[in-house]
Amino acid sequence: MKRKSSRAAKAAKISKPALRRTKTRKYAPRAKTAAAPKPKVAFYWCSSCGGCEEAVVDLEENILEVTAAVDIVFWPCALDFKTEDVRALPDQSLAVAFINGAVRTSEQEEMVKLLRAKSQLVIAFGACAVQGGIPSLANLKDKESIITRAYREAESVVNPKGTLPQENTTLHGESLTIPRFYETVYTLADVIPVDYYLPGCPPTRSLLEDALHAILGNRLPARGAVLAPNHSLCKTCERNATKPDRLMIQDLKRIHQVAADPESCFLAQGLLCLGPATRDGCGQACIKANMPCTGCFGPLSHFDQGAKMLSALAGIFQAEGETAADHFAASVVDPAGTFYRYGVAASLLGGRRKERSHG
After folding, report:
1. Alpha helices in 119-263 (DSSP H)
2. Do the Cβ atoms of 112 and 99 come closer than 8 Å?
3. Who wins on pLDDT, 125 or 216?
4. DSSP bridge partners of 185
5. Cα first-last separation, the chain
6. Is 266 in contact with 258 (CB distance < 8 Å)?
7. pLDDT level of residue 13 (50, 70, 90 thresholds)
8. Nearest to 109 by CA among 48, 169, 166, 182
9. How far is CA 212 from CA 68, 182, 215, 350, in A?
């Protein structure tokens, strides 16, 4: 009997339908019959910048292995899916829905509630879904002032009649409706039950890969967990070794005012860095670019991020007298935007605003 040539042997091996490259495939699905359907996954975008969608694309060639392991049935940012496609799905037929962005409009509320009904798991994906993100800084203003600024007062606006958007409008005999713009920005968990939280602005590639591994391998922690380390960024920061044993500062400088030392602790240089109050998991991308942490991964469990950072600063502030204290406070130009940049909606301040909006 003649032996097959090495080329023929390779071709025969590759053609086997059951072949699974488990040594190289990162997202190989669990063993199942050829006829078994792949887990169905959805991605949806609420009030956010779109960076979380980019985080999925940042998987690069590995996204092909993701699509080999799962069936993406809803991703309107990337593919032509419609709301009717989701409504037609049986309840609980989606293995997981990744929802990024805060909730600000009636359309967003309707969609996340629909996805919740259709999904076995919902993951709040990114800072805006987890904490409200930068969009929730709008909670410091009321709805009317935001709309007035956007449509009448902004420097680039040309609106001589002062026209404002209306939820219901009749034009040429046709009734037009746009989503209702809510008084308040909400976190995803304010609107629907959330199973897991994946923080970051945006979440890092490694955290997203770890989450996909855990979902496909049925290795998720208890529901309600944040899929990132529960310790501060300072714990793993390479600059931590340069921080003095007793760190004391007299004032704070902004990053554009100095040439920051690329190796020393930012706080030791008098530069405000939110590392002490921020969850680890970002891979220190900003730190490695010689930029202080701005807090996008949010607080550790059971902490208010802004209050935690203010407490940390109070412990290292070295000055005497009311004048010195006023000078120190004035060095933080935008306190809310500094200490709650990504989390007003999930903060102590945001909670009170939401209560008033429902009153």
Report:
1. 127-131, 143-148, 188-191, 205-216
2. yes
3. 125
4. none
5. 86
6. no
7. very low
8. 182
9. 13, 33, 5, 31
d(CA 131, CA 295): 11
Domain boundaries in the chain? 25-134+184-216, 233-357
Distance CA 287, CA 235 (A): 13
Q: Report the alpha-carbon angle 176-180-182, nearest 5.
A: 165
* The token pair that represents 27 in the structure block: 């997202």
Encoded tokens for 232: 């501060």
pTM of full prediction above 0.70: yes
Unique residue bearing structure tokens 């809310």? 336
Cβ burial of 77 (10 Å; 0-12, 13-18, 19+) is middle
How far is residue 281's CA from residue 264's CA, in Å, rounded to a whole number?
A: 20
How many CA atoms lie less than 13 Å away from 168 in the CB half-sphere? Answer: 2
What residues contact 165, with CB distance under 8 A and at least 6 apart? 147, 151, 178, 181
Kind plus residue range of the DSSP H or E element containing 183? strand 181-186
| Residues 6 or more apart whose Cβ sits within 8 Å of residue 22 | 28
Helix axes 205-216, 62-69, angle to 10 degrees: 20
Amino acid occupying residue 109: E
Mean predicted confidence (pLDDT) in 58-77: 87
Q: What is the CATH number of domain 25-134+184-216?
A: 3.40.50.700
Per-residue pLDDT tens for 285-343?
Answer: 999 999 999 999 999 998 999 999 999 998 888 777 778 778 778 888 899 999 999 99
Element (H, E) at 42: strand 40-45
Residues 251, 270: contact at Cβ < 8 Å?
yes
Contact 116, 188 (CB under 8 A): no
What length does the chain have? 359
120-to-102, 137, 190 alpha-carbon distances in Å: 21, 31, 18
Contact in structure between 95 and 70 (CB atoms under 8 Å): yes
Q: Which of 66, 62, 72 is nearest to 40 (CA)?
A: 72
